[in-house]
């Protein structure tokens, strides 16, 4: 069985975009792959979070992933900082990672531009830490978005370079994995673009019914169609895309027909959409709250995940030490 590994950024709560664009695919993946999901809290140190932030965000994200259906019996879910073996591999990879190539990474250059006062070595070596995360589990596939493509190239380069330096066929080159056609782009409801945390337009899985309703009722619309079968402008098309994602086929067809015959009432459409989003989120929300109220369980799941991940990581590391010439 192939191994798939995915890092999860511990940045806030999951929204519908995260769910339909990524998390739903992870939940499916755990049935078909040897899956590792880790919360990338070491990576988050580049922005200097407080100890409180660190503790809270790791637990929150763990609770949300579990609530979405990640099953610790099927997949190994762990917190990166619980697996110190990764750091040793990070050190070895760093010895053969060169300043020039690290400085050329686009996401690094962007950070240099955006935060000139905090260009730390962790930012520079982000790709080596990511490569260590991947290579320590000898992952075959890594689900990534476009923004991570260059880091994946670096991971492949570091794997090849290690093999060449030590004349071994040890690390395999991890492939980028793009989700199947089932991953959809979830639009924002503020007129254009996609749903995102930084866009300020996200509907979170943990949002309660009233919050969902408030967010949906604020969605941008227009004066309505004036001709039958008129093409939908973006804000309206976005509302329909949301209906397609969370509502039944009948509901979608009903409002689509109303639109095409110029009878659509956006207020009714939004009310229905808010209700359907709530129906979708309610069981997940309930499970999130259950997990969050049981920190003992969360900590136990994290500990068990770390144990499994460490065992596997330690086996890789023993071989790496041997290859390099250290005691295994
Ligand atoms: P982010 O929270 O922005 O780091 O996103 C994490 C992952 O969630 C991304 O790599 C995407 O796969 C997915 N994602 C985020 N927003 C959306 C969206 N609006 N539509 C589809 N997928 C999304």
> What's the number of domains?
2
Q: Provide the spatial order of strands within the biggest beta sheet.
A: 1-2-3
CATH architecture assignment name of the largest domain = 3-Layer(aba) Sandwich
Largest sheet: 3 strands, parallel
- The CATH topology name of the largest domain reads Rossmann fold
Shape: elongated
Order of helices and strands: EHEHEHHHHHEHEHHHHH
Give the helix level as a range of percent.
55-70%
Overview of this structure, please?
- This protein is mainly α.
- It has two domains: 3-184 and 295-324, Rossmann fold, CATH 3.40.50.620; 209-289, Tyrosyl-Transfer RNA Synthetase (Orthogonal Bundle), CATH 1.10.240.
- The protein contains 13 helices and five strands.
- It has helices at 16-32, 51-68, 85-95, 99-103, 106-114, 121-124, 126-135, 149-166, 209-217, 234-246, 249-260, 266-292, 295-324; strands spanning 3-8, 34-39, 76-79, 141-143, 175-177.
- The strands form two sheets. Strands 1-2-3 form a three-stranded parallel beta sheet. It has a two-stranded parallel ribbon with strand order 4-5.
- The site of adenosine monophosphate (AMP) has 13 residues, from helix 1.
- The site of adenosine monophosphate has 13 residues, from helix 1.
Give keywords:
5 strands; elongated; 2 domains; 13 helices; 328 residues; mainly alpha; binds adenosine monophosphate; Rossmann fold
Give a summary of the structure in a few sentences.
The protein has 13 helices and five strands. By secondary structure, it is mainly alpha-helical. The protein folds into two domains: 3-184 and 295-324, HUPs (Rossmann fold), CATH 3.40.50.620; 209-289, Tyrosyl-Transfer RNA Synthetase (Orthogonal Bundle).
């Amino acid at each position: 069985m192939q191994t798939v590994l995915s890092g999860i950024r511990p940045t806030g709560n999951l929204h519908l975009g995260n769910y339909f664009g990524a998390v739903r695919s992870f939940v499916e993946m755990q049935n078909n792959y040897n899956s590792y999901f880790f919360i990338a809290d070491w990576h988050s140190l580049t922005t200097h979070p407080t100890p409180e932030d660190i503790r809270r965000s790791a637990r929150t994200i763990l609770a949300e992933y579990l609530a979405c259906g990640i099953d610790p019996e099927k997949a190994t879910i762990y917190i990166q900082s619980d697996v110190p073996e990764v750091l040793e591999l990070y050190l070895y990879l760093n010895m053969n990672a060169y300043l020039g190539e690290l400085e050329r990474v686009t996401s690094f250059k962007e950070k240099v531009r955006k935060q000139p006062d905090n260009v730390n070595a962790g930012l520079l070596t982000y790709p080596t830490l990511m490569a260590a995360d991947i290579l320590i589990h000898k992952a075959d596939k890594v689900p990534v978005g476009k923004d991570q493509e260059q880091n994946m190239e670096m991971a492949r380069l570091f794997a090849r370079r290690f093999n060449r330096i030590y004349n071994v066929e040890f690390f395999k080159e991890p492939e980028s994995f793009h989700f199947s056609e089932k991953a959809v782009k979830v639009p924002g409801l503020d007129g254009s673009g996609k749903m995102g945390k930084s866009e300020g337009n996200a509907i979170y899985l943990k949002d309660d019914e009233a919050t969902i309703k408030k967010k949906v009722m604020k969605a941008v619309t227009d004066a309505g169609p004036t001709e039958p079968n008129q093409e939908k402008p973006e804000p309206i098309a976005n509302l329909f895309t949301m209906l397609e994602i969370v509502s039944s086929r009948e509901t979608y067809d009903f409002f689509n027909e109303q639109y095409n015959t110029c009878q659509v009432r956006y207020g009714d459409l939004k009310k229905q959409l808010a209700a359907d989003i709530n129906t979708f989120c309610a069981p997940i929300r309930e499970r999130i709250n259950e997990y969050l109220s049981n920190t003992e369980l969360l900590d136990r799941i994290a500990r068990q995940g770390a144990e499994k991940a460490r065992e596997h990581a330690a086996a890789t590391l023993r071989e790496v030490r041997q290859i390099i010439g250290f005691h295994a």
